[in-house]
Specification:
73 residues
Length: 73
Amino acid sequence: MKPVTLVGIVLIVLGALALAYQGITYTTREKVVDLGPIKASVDKRKTIPLPPILGAVALATGAVLVVVGNKRG
């Protein structure tokens, strides 16, 4: 398999995932109270939004790379 085609397939998969999930969510733990033996923390969920246009561009670019990779051979 040609490298151009392989990169195209990876972009298609990443673009589909970006469209499906529309963001990356992760959890952080922050200390609220730390007084000797008394400790309290809270888990906070944060999200990095991925715009749908990013997924669409990745899908389209991947499709173009797959077509170009197959035409060259």
